[in-house]
Amino acid sequence: MTKRNPHMARLSANYLFPEINLRKRQFLAQHPEVHLISLGIGDTTEPIPPFITRALTEGAAKLGTREGYTGYGPEQGEQSLREQIASKIYQNKVPAEDIFISDGAKCDLGRVQMLFGNEASIAVQDPAYPVYIDGSIIQGIKTIVPMPCNPENNFFPCLEALSRTDLIYFCSPNNPTGVAATKTQLQQLISFAKANRSIIIFDSAYAHYIQDPSMPKSIFEIDGAQEVAIELGSFSKIAGFTGVRLGWSVVPEALKFDDGSSVKADWKRVMSTIFNGASNISQCGGQAILTETGWKEVEALTTFYMENTRLIRDTMRRLGYEVFGGENAPYLWVRFKGRHSWDVFQEFLEKFHVVTTPGIGFGPEGESFIRLTAFGHRENVLLALDRMRDGKT
Ligand code: PL4
To answer: How do strand 331-335 and strand 144-148 relate by DSSP bridges?
Structure first.
């Protein structure tokens, strides 16, 4: 018989989000009359705005014509899209040549681990998006160092207490805490990586939600990042592209392995070997997002979700909940001291008919927290808050 990948046995039975869906389905099977409101999985809910939708439609229609048909595209993605990302997202601090278009940040997270092999050691914010750890485990990585982030350290890890690792996963604004790192904090992180000759995998999936102009939206806003960081970006939360699928990575020319060889050259090799390019239709959508009209449309979407965030944060605080995050991110991180987060999850489900995400699913530091997402129709957010007002848990 063929042997199973032995590392699979080191994973918990279910990935966090299917587990939440399972519990939701079980609850609904017992209570089919209930209108459940999901503030759980961070998935966008509002329609893709019209200018961008039109570009997607036109992109699809072109494929039905002899003149407009295209097959496999350039391996690194459409040059014009890469140039737009370089100028609109990075204000040309990053050249188009260092940008690789992809089918989303999660997929890039899986592939990026191939660059380093299973001997690499990694440090991960605790709590963090589970893919960093689960993906590394599947890959066979054994040394995983948690970087505790909690209210006591303002959700920024104590770097002095940290042992050296080859890779440092860092997400800002952070999922799940909803807290973004300041410029000074990212400077510290880069100095730490330089001193340790580590590489930072910077996940900027929620950068578009940063409201405070003094907060960096990219690690490449900080001097020296080019020598120590890879950044993974996504159109999912910018434009409601969670189903369309479009993202990018930035792997700077200046980034080297310890033998002096080029990380970017290997990334090109990985991408051209096991990835066949992002959908040409999605890339038409991406090009539309980064025009003046498209950008106005997505700014309005972000404003809408951030108003949800404000409503949830302010109402819950008024009700006496201890709420963190949500200033520069679409996530709220709510603490229930002394309680287990799955118990609080269950209580919100049964009492308010509101689905949340239990903090423990993001790491041990998440115990006694739940995460609420601000992705939701306004009427559902208001209804969820009404239910909490009527019977605070
Ligand atoms: C549920 C920090 C959500 N089934 O859409 P992508 O692949 O460009 O980006 C995924 C992603 C990347 N980085 C971070 C993220 O938080 C996410 C999406 N996370 C969540 O609720 O935490 C969606 C989760 C989805 C999944 O497993 O990713």
So the answer is: unpaired
In CATH terms, the fold of domain 69-291 is: Aspartate Aminotransferase; domain 2 (3.40.640)
Confidence of residue 391 (pLDDT cuts 50, 70, 90): confident
pTM of the predicted structure, to 2 decimals: 0.97
The answer to whether the beta carbons of residues 170 and 189 sit under 8 Å apart is yes
Return the domain boundaries, the chain: 6-48+294-390, 69-291
pLDDT value at residue 393:
53
How far apart CA 178 and CA 371 sit, in angstroms, is: 9
pLDDT at residue 287 in the model: 98
The class (CATH top level) of 6-48+294-390 is alpha beta
Task: Specify the pLDDT at position 8.
Answer: 94
**Which one of 129, 149, 210, 232 would you pick to mutate in the ligand 1 pocket, going by the greatest count of ligand atoms within 8 A of its CB?**
129
Measured in angstroms, how far is the CA atom of residue 42 from the centroid of ligand 1?
Answer: 7
Q: Number of H helices and number of E strands within the chain?
A: 12, 13
